[in-house]
Amino acid sequence: MRDNYLFTSESVSEGHPDKVADQISDAVVDLFLSRDPVARVACETMVTTQRIVLAGEVRANEGAFPSLAEIEQAARDTVRRIGYEQHGFHWQTADFACHLHGQSAHIAQGVDESGNKDEGAGDQGIMFGFACDETPDLMPATLYYSHRILEKMAADRHARVVDFLEPDAKSQVTLKFENGVPTGATALVVSTQHTKALSNDAGQKRLRDYVMTVFEEVLPSGWMPANQDHIYVNPTGLFEIGGPDGDAGLTGRKIIVDTYGGAAPHGGGAFSGKDPTKVDRSAAYISRYLAKNVVAAGLAKRCTIQLSYAIGIAEPLSLYVDTHGTGTVDEAKIEAVLPKLVRLTPKGIRTHLGMNKAIYQPTAAYGHFGRKADGDFFTWERTDLVDALKGELG
User: Fold this and answer.
1) Domain S-adenosylmethionine synthetase C-terminal: where (predicted)?
2) pLDDT tens track for 47-97
3) Considering only CA atoms, which of 55, 50, 99 is closest in space to residue 250?
């Protein structure tokens, strides 16, 4: 790795069209899992002007299958919570269509347990987890602050601290790294949807002044860009038309925002809308969990972990650890120890992290990682393997 460089990550708000779609898809996952912990869900959502469309494959035990009305209500409740009550996209009046259908029997035969056969992976693929010591949550600093900026703005909008913000927004943070450590921002960007009240020069100044206070509150002291010209607030001008009315949204189009902001590899599979038998989700979560524990145990300052799976096969095909030259022990030794601490089959992952529960909608905005573990939620952010790793490798 280079010691001195600039690096950038972006985030998008809960009201971004793609994030609206992600949150609806995960609301459907939670609805099914709340009725049947072994339900199978692969739900895709498309949102556009006054329209919500669901498609995908589902399976649940008899008597646990939600009604069409309940699925529709879960979608509308999600849009209402986000805050869309606009002419071009309204939680109550948008057209709704559901094209969910039964899961393929050929997929089911590979995934389900039967006789001596262990439960297999729900798909093939590669999954990555990452952790670094740039923030207390062991996340890349550029993405961490991009998320925090939009979370602060959303909190102010919901609490009516300000009355001119609408749900759709994006942020971008560029940080300067010296000797591998982030030392300050060189450029900041926020584009946010706003009410008509700000559609004049005075309103745009009011918006910029507000966003500047958010930057000052979220970033560490002394981190603001030295050049004010490198702080961009709605650089294209007015932003009244936004959300699904301004741009169609689809599940799974913000996978870098969901993970590590470009600071680590990505296997390509989206998370939202998928039950935890899909290793796109569960194996990515366990990879983050393992990488975070490696860094938290002091075995490395940065750690990337890759897992790979074949559909219908329980055990991973490979486990790869890279500590990017920052490790205190050989990566091969870490690779040998991790499977002893957690069984890396789909069922083993879900059991270890308690994933067969309705816990997924909160993951679908502001990142799946770097969040606070709280009871059943974000269990993959725990650092409860630290002592075991130190005992084996410290």
Assistant:
1) 241-382
2) 999 999 999 999 999 899 999 999 999 999 999 999 999 999 999 999 999
3) 55
